[in-house]
Amino acid sequence: MKFRILLYCLLLHLPSFAQSSIDPLLEKLREKMHTIYDTIDRAGAIFAVVLPDGTYGAVPVGYADQEAGIPMTAEHRMLGGSTGKIFVSAVIMQQVEKGVLDLDRPVREYLGHYDWYARVQNADQLTLRNLLRHSSGISRYVFEEQFQKDVLLDADRVWKPAELLAYVLDKDPLFAPGTDFAYSDTNYILAAMVLEEVTGKNMYKLVRKNVLKPFKLKRVSPQVDRKVKGLAVGYSGPDDPFFPGRTVKNGVYQYNLQFEWAGGGFVMNPQDLARAGKLIYEGKVFDPALLEDFFDGVDAKRLGGQWGLGVHITDTPYGKAYGHSGFFPGYITNMQYFPEKGIAIAYQTNTSDAANRALFLAMRDLVKLVMEY
């Protein structure tokens, strides 16, 4: 009973402008969320929706910390994993709009003066367009066996981008640029290095100044410190290749957070993630004339659909959807914007345990509820 009262109070504290049109929908979502949660152990989740007029709200379920009995609230934050790439691609597109960056200019013209650059896979043929839509042929540093060992040695280590790239230098490329697709965080490490090289500014500061601050996305912040305000405890499975078990102890995340950088690198909440998706995909964050390039995707192979310049494009029963998903030990995230409906949704769970992923997959039922409301 206390948990239901808490949820009700949280709904009352949604932004006042959102009350009239969204409350009935949130109530239906809340009922559906509890039906789903009855079949799940340990996990918690937050589901957020933004309506065509910009009103938004979120419904939480479960626990932010099961051991301590702390319920998940609509304001809890989680690690967004690769979903953070939407902010990196957005600030890069802002620089394309200004003429500071060119999507088709060879990356070697930006970074070729560094000794290590010639050792990058496909170094002479890379463009920003290749990097942003994962058609570069560059492999994933995070799955290199030596990196997975090294990252465990010091959870507080501050990794430099060039140190991350070092794990794939001198390796054979996966394919020639532009001829295939292979999702790789390394692409965004390199793309953000181009961004910082040309602007002379820190990637996180560019995102904060040009995206988070002007659009009041206050629940999103850089993932640089293992002690994160408002972070729900994450639970990963016993066989997790990165960090198994409870990921937060005494308020401190137990795995290195900083290394992800431009490959994800943001702490977030589904409400602001959904708002960000709607803003970006409607052309409010950079010149809408660039959306044609932005949505010009390549076949995403086994991931389905197409991949544009930092956006996964899929066909759904509700029309085309733009979005991104993400994983970080203890958390799974998904965000989608449906242009034919003008609606954005986002949801996060604080478990990446395969045994509890049913909760994440069940969120699809909530999407159906929103679309048919």
TrEMBL record:
The keyword Glycoprotein belongs to this UniProt entry's keyword annotation: no
Alphabetized Pfam families for the sequence: Beta-lactamase (PF00144)
Signal peptide span: 1-18
Entry's transmembrane regions: none
Domain named Beta-lactamase-related: residues: 39-356
Domain of life: Bacteria
Gene Ontology molecular functions: hydrolase activity
Keywords: Hydrolase, Signal
Keyword field contains Protease: no
Organism: Flavilitoribacter nigricans (strain ATCC 23147 / DSM 23189 / NBRC 102662 / NCIMB 1420 / SS-2) (Lewinella nigricans)
Name of the protein this chain belongs to: Beta-lactamase-related domain-containing protein
